[in-house]
Design brief:
Order of helices and strands: HHHHHHHHEHEEHEEH
Radius of gyration: 39 Å
Shape: rod-shaped
Largest sheet: 5 strands, mixed
Amino acid sequence: MGRHLLAAAVVAADTALLAAAHGNTLHPWGILLCALVLGLVVLLSQRFPAAAFTVALALVVLAGGGYALLLWTAYQAGRRVVSRTGTAIVAGVALGGLGGKLLVRPPEPRLIPGLVCAYVVFVALPLLVGRYLAQHERLLSALDRNNRRLRRERELLAERERLRERLRIARDMHDSLGHRLSLVTIQASALEVSVPPSQREAVRRLGAAASGAVDELHTLLGTLRGEGARSHGATAIEEVVAEFRSAGLPVTSRRRGEPRALDAEAEQAAYRVVEEGLTNASRHAPGRPVTVNLAWEPDGLLVTVVNPLADHVADGAGHGLTGLDERVRAAGGFLDHRAENGEFRLVAMLPFAAESEDAETPVPGTARTALLGFAAAALMFVVLPMSMLVGAG
């Protein structure tokens, strides 16, 4: 928008100067025709800057007018002409225009320095400024592309190292925990046959818990190998609550609000909060009632696990809660746990899944380039012409 206004100002300025200089001898229709020609040259400079610069220079040499248009077209030629051939053509036209000015209207010898200075102001300076700004923008664009490429390469290297470490951890966990949990499952199955009928249900639950631990371990190993993780949503939370309830822990589950979608990482975090809270309750306050609250608030899911403290246990933040806090923070939420009024309260707030928005990465230095371009335009189109007109007057 600003560029179009500046182009209109160029046409208006040259038309006003033409009307002031030849208003008595030139018909109004002639002035309107000149304004139309100036406007066509401005439009031509958008697609063919070298040709527009040539036409503007010819108007100045032959008709003695159109200096604002010459400033505009010279600047546009410097900005848009980037090839070597085009640059050579623009330079040849500029030198040819100076020679033509000296041949068509030879000035007095004492006026030649002034003519050369005016030529520098109206031709050479806008060409150089436009050329500099174009090269500056191309340099910034090249630096931005190079920075993006380096970031991508650095991310690929980091991802390769993370994958290598995850594979090592997966192998170690499979060789140690996997074999031991499988052994527990086998021993529980064998024990179920030999124990009295009154204890078989407890042994069966033990075997089911060990089997579930093996399944969780396999899921975790698949995640470490990059095979994708199982999504633990609200249904999985109800399942883990049911598992602890069947194991003898009195758990009450409450839900409030309209359920909304969470991203995979937040779902995993919500599941682990409930699992960790129930595990701590069964360990530190066995047999005490536990309450699990799932509240869908306007800005996220609020997960709360509350259980009474045992008289001889002061529950604190161990490695499980520390890792849980890291998991919740990675999902964009926050975790709080505290023991007060005879209760231990574990609270997590997890954000809802946000819609993806494509954002363009700003090119560095754009504001500085725009400011420099504005200053150069103000210098060429306002300050220098006004100073020359005042000097001529």
